[in-house]
Structures are given as C-alpha cells and as structure tokens.
Amino acid sequence: MTEQVKILVPSGALGAGNNRAPEPFDRGVREKPDVIAVDAGSTDSGPHYLGSANPKPSRAVLRSELRQLMVARAELGVPLIVGSCGTSGADNGVNIMRDICADIARELGQTVRVACLYSEQSADTVKQALREGRIRALQPERPIDEALIDRCSHIVGLMGVEPIIHALEQGADIVLAGRTTDTALMAAVPVMRGLPAGAAWHAAKTLECGALCTTAPTVGAVLATVDGTGFTIEALSEGGRATPRTVHAHMLYENADPFVLTEPGGVLDVTDATYTALDERRCRVEGSHWLPSQAYTMKLEGAAPAGYQGVILNTIRSPRYIQRFEEWISTLEARVRKTIEARLGLSSADYHLQFRAIGRDGTLGALETQTDTQPLEIGVMGIVTTPDAARTKEVLSMLNSPMLHFALPDDEEMPTHAFPFSPASMDRGVVYEFVLHHVMTVSDPIAAVRFNLETLGVPA
Amino acid sequence: MNGSTTGYHIRSKNAGPFWLTVDIFCDDAATYQRLCRDARLAHATIGTLLRTDTPSIKTFHIDALNVIKISLPRPVVQGALDDRDMHGAAWANLVRESLAA
Predict the structure, then answer these.
(1) What are the tens digits of pLDDT across the range B1-24?
(2) Out of B14, B15, B75, closest to residue A367 by CB
(3) B100 CB within 8 Å of a chain A CB
C-alpha cells in the first residue's frame, strides 16, 4: 500500500473560463502531486448539453485550460484525469477533448498515452437491462418504458473508479473519461494504490468543486493528501484557508443528503467524520466510512427532445397596463389561442404556449408569494414549443401582432407596446428534457464502458 | 457567512435535475436552535410554500455547523418546459421571506 497520495485539482470545472491567477495551481505543482484530476461536466446547466452532446465551453477555452494541465503533467510525470468530458460526458464530448489533446501534444512536442473512456449507453443496452429487471427508479420515481428510452437522443451511465483504474493500469498518461461521478475521477488513484476507500471518496467529494471547500473559492486550485487514516485538505491561494467549517460545509453543496453519498459500488458515510484544523491552511479529516454495495449500479442520465422552441419578448411600461396586467395578458392569450385555431387549425394539444411576466412573477410563476406589489415594467416573454420547426415559427408569428398592439378590453385606442428586437422572435432550435432518474445494475464495473488507448503527439 | 441582520443566510441549489436543496447557515447556536423549532420550516409548511410532495421532504440538522438543510423533489424537473429557474437559485427567497414575515 502507498503511504499517501496527493491529488491536485486545478479548478472546479475544466472550461469554466475564469481568469484565474496561475499561482495557486503552480503552488500545487510544487507540492509534487501524484495525480492531477479535474471534472469537466455537470447536469447543472440543464438538459441541452446531454441532449445535443455538445459541450458548454468553447474549444478555445478548453484548449487553453487543458494545455496548462498537460504542461504540468509532463513536468511531474503523473497521470492527468479529466472526467465528464464535454459537459455531459457523451461520446462526442470525449472525442472533442481527444482531438484538442492530440493538437496540444503535437504543439508541446509531447508523446502521451491517452485513454478515452466512453460511457454512452445505446437504447438497446438500456432496453435489455429494463427487460432483465436491472433498471431501478430513484426517488422521486419517474416512469420508464422502451418508448421513453427510444426517445432519448443520448443516455450516459455514470462511471465509478474502476474504468479509470483500468485505464491507468494499462499505462495511460491521460484519461479522458465520459460521464463519471464527480468524485470517482478524484478517488481513483488513492483507491488504486490501496488507501482506505472512505478517506479516498470523502476527499474526492470535498475536492469536486476545487477551492470551493476553502475560504478562497474563486482561486480554483486545491490539494488533498489521502493517507492510511484520513485526508488533509490544503488551500493553495495566498491567504486562503481550508478550515473545519469550509471543508465540512462542502458536504452540503449540491447534495441532497449531507452525510451519505451513494456512488457506483458503494456508499460513502461521513456521519462519524471529524474535522480538525492543522494550521492556517490545512484541515484534517478522519472517520469517513465506505460501505461496499452488494450490487454494482451505474446511474443513468438521459435527455430527450421536447420540441422546437421559439421565444418572443416585449416590455410593458404603461402604468395602466401594469395595473391591469393579469386581465390584459389572459385576454391576449385567449385571443391568440383562438386565432391559432382559426388560422392554423391547431388545437391546444398541438402546441405548448406559455407567457411569462418577467419582473412580476417570471422567476417563480405560481410559487410567487409577493403578488400585491406593482412593478415599474414587465417583460412579457411568449414561449412556443411544438414538435415541428415550421409549426413553431408559424405559431410564434401569430403572437407578434397582438404583443405589439393588443389593447385592454375597454380601450378604444390601439396601443403600441415596446419591442426590443427586430426580428421580435428568437429561434431556440430543439430543446431537451431530462427523462431518466434511474440506476442500472451491471455485473462488471467496466463492462458497460468502451476503452480506446492510443499514443498521441509526436512519435516517441 | 457573518454580518447578516437576520442571524442566518439561506441558499438554494439543484442537487441533480430532480432534487432541490435549501441550506440555512446560522450565525450562532442560539439562532440555529430557534430555527430548528420554527414551524415555518416544518415539512407541511415547506411543502405548501414550494408546492412539493410533503412526505418526500427531508430535513437535516447539522449541529457542528449550525446548519439546517432541507432537501425536496424539485417542483418542476430542471429544464422541463415549465421550469423557470435552471439552477434552483430562487427558491431560497421564498423560505427567507417566509421566515421574515
């Protein structure tokens, strides 16, 4: 067993594009970490990135940030692990990162063994698992059937540590992984080297958002040292601190349960963990437990097209129209729906139309409790979604004239409402929805993952 | 987390596309103990306020941090056609305003 493993995390997300000072990361490099690991994906920005399989950051930003890591990796001679490539972890995201990596390796004159790990699941694979009773719904339960699986444009399975360890054991210098859990990519090396799984996974959970577990969350980089009895988190920025409070508090972040974290192959339980300040910069954590699961499960994420969407926006500034806004918008909507039926022959089941009153209850809608205040102005956003791009455009065009000129019922004159754009409407293309909230049991942690190991850059 | 006029700070955030979590960070133990007993944070009240299934709500009391965490199924799945708050940021306002009322 290795005595300790140092994990350097350069930032909470590769490609976030923040203009960070290089010093905290360079300080981490000087600590001679055993691995550099960074997450590059999330569902946090919504279903578009999985649905389309396109990454959120630009290639230029990804290239810039990956280059810094590849330079450091070569200097240190340690593995670099990037998880959830391309935001969603779909195969396309891995391929984009692989091409960027190849380009940088040539530019830097490096020869690197790169493992691509693909965890996108075909509809047939998931349907087979459903037939075999290997799909289980998580709470809150969502219905699933074969038709729903077929609707998904992309489904990914979240990898645990095993595929990453397999790639490293095959000699990979750089692992570019599809969808992984945020923690697996950081827990992989300490687990591989035989350190306690409880400490490894808890350290990984603490590291998942980079320096967010310190008093200087915006600097990006953070270091963890996992050893035989626990782990130590070290802040890397000048004046930054990892305190018992900041480290403990990170178990809360984006996590429904602050004590228990279910991962592929087991459960992390931090109920008994203790947090101790070692000095100004470092916090020591001990007492975390890992409970292996009987069945190995991969969480599934699936996004399906919800239709073609377009939006139109105007702004209402007249106090009279603001005062009687509910009456105005409901009358307008009724008129619009009637016209759509008369002119386009569409019933309300054929299209999805929603008006949002930005500045009044646009953020919370029916949940808004402060309904007795009168705003100075209201942005009216008409949102149209239908199964067909041309139909969406047609329906959207029926909103234009009323939103420009629609009057209160007893108003004889024709008002003109403010439009900020020409054209007034904006095409949003295909929009997606998350439809899977399930886990898939697999007999082998790496059987559901496809591997490709190759040498990139200049010939050795 | 210091310097609040109420003695606590509240944030809300997605915990995946199907869950929402509201964290209440108290400045001191007295505020924490008071809020732990506050009926406005009871599941029935929160369920009504956030329009969600009350039996599914989970509350965690983290004594070491003076933090109360409330997790619940998202009223609308993240990114669905009716979702208005992609990152679940705004629900914290409702809880804050309920406590201040």
Answers:
(1) 445 789 999 999 999 999 999 999
(2) B75
(3) no
Rounded to whole angstroms, the Cα distance separating A40 from A208 reads: 10
Region A148-160: what's the mean pLDDT? 98
Cα separation, A211 vs A191, whole angstroms: 22
Q: How far is A384 from chain B (nearest CA, A)?
A: 10
H helix intervals, A77-142: 91-108, 123-131
> Rounded CA gap, B30 and B35, in Å?
9
Sign of CA dihedral A372, A373, A375, A376: positive
pLDDT in tens, A228-279: 999 999 999 999 999 999 999 998 887 889 999 999 999 999 999 999 999 9
Q: Cβ-count burial of A147 within 10 angstroms (0-12 exposed, 13-18 middle, 19+ buried)?
A: exposed
H or E segment and range at residue A7:
strand A4-9
pLDDT of residue B2: 47
CA distance A44 to chain B (A): 6
Q: Are A448 and A299 in contact (CB under 8 A)?
A: no
Taking only the tens place, the pLDDT of each residue in B56-75 is: 999 999 999 999 999 999 99
CB atoms within 10 A of CB A350: 15
CB A162 within 8 A of CB A242: no
Largest CA distance in chain B: 42
Is A352 close to B60, i.e. CB distance below 8 A? no
CA terminus-to-terminus distance, chain A = 32
Is the CB of residue A200 less than 8 Å from the CB of residue A172? Answer: no
Q: Between β-strands A80-87 and A174-177, what pairing exists: parallel, antiparallel or unpaired?
A: parallel
- From chain B, the residues in CB contact with A270 under 8 A are none
> Cα A166–A170–A172 angle (5° rounding)?
95
CA distances from B68 to A46, A258, B74 (A): 27, 10, 18
Q: What pLDDT is recorded for position A1?
A: 63
Question: Among residues 230-249 of chain A, which lie with CB inside 8 Å of chain B?
Answer: 245, 248-249
Sequence-ordered list of residues with C-beta below 8 angstroms from that of B67, at least 6 positions apart, any chain? A249, A252, B23, B24, B25, B26, B32
CA–CA distance, A360 with A348 (Å, rounded to integer): 25
ipTM, interface predicted TM-score of the complex: 0.92
